[in-house]
């Protein structure tokens, strides 16, 4: 892939994620979405909530709290973002 294509792809991804972030009116929702999106895009075999929370927290004691934030993000997403 040419560097210009990589930069264009990166720019499109940032625009897409920023657009979703703009629809989330609560800063806690935006923070949880950022964790979720980073977890999907980062290395890691499993992309379900528990492994994402474990990787995001980096600390076994805070893993449960991060998992809780992630699972409660989905029901509060604006209708426009729901599958």
Quick tags:
83 residues, mainly alpha, 4 helices
Word description of this protein:
The chain is mainly alpha-helical and 83 residues long. It has one domain. Helix content is 69%, strand content 0%. Helix 2 crosses helix 3 (49-57) and helix 3 (49-57) packs across helix 4. The longest helix is centred in the first third of the chain and has 21 residues, at 3-23.
* Helical amount: 55-70%
Low-confidence stretches: none
What does the main sheet amount to? none
What class would the helix/strand composition place it in? Answer: mainly alpha
Number of domains: 1
List the helices and strands and how they pair.
Elements: H1 3-23, H2 27-41, H3 49-57, H4 60-71
Give the gist of this structure.
The chain has 83 residues and is mostly helical.
């Amino acid at each position: 892939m040419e560097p210009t294509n990589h930069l264009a792809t990166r720019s499109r991804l940032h625009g897409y994620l920023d657009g979703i972030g703009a629809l989330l009116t609560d800063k806690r929702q935006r923070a949880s979405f950022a964790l979720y999106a980073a977890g999907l895009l980062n290395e890691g075999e499993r992309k379900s909530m528990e492994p994402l929370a474990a990787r995001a927290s980096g600390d076994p004691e805070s893993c449960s709290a991060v998992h809780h934030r992630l699972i409660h993000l989905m029901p509060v997403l604006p209708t426009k973002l729901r599958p």
